[in-house]
Specification:
1 helix, 3 domains, alpha+beta, two-stranded antiparallel sheet, rod-shaped
Amino acid sequence: MSDTNQNPGILIPPVGACHERVRQALQDIVRRLGTSSAPTYSTLVLEDLTANKLVKTNSDKALASADIYDFVDGTTNQINKADDGDGTMTLSAPQDIHAGATAFTVTGLVVNEVDSLPATVVVGKVVRLATDDRLYYGKG
């Protein structure tokens, strides 16, 4: 679109991109407003959209309503997503992890909090002891 008479605030689609009457109407607006005008709209109401929803473009490149659920993907066995039915969503892990628990299990791994570490555990290192087949982390 290298039309030197193009209004910077109103872009006129190229021939064939829209109905010819739409192009003519836009050209008429530019002609009446002048090529240096930049119209500002205080209110725009799109009747086909749903209030309080996100906006996306559909396969026809038309505006459509959307929920946050439409934009977020889960990851199998890592993050689950659930549509709450009201435009919101819930993210969760496949297994509950209680922050105050003294142990939790993830796919066979048991992590326990202990009062004291075996003498062979060094601060900042993870050690597996053959004597009890457990992993220990020296947090210091």
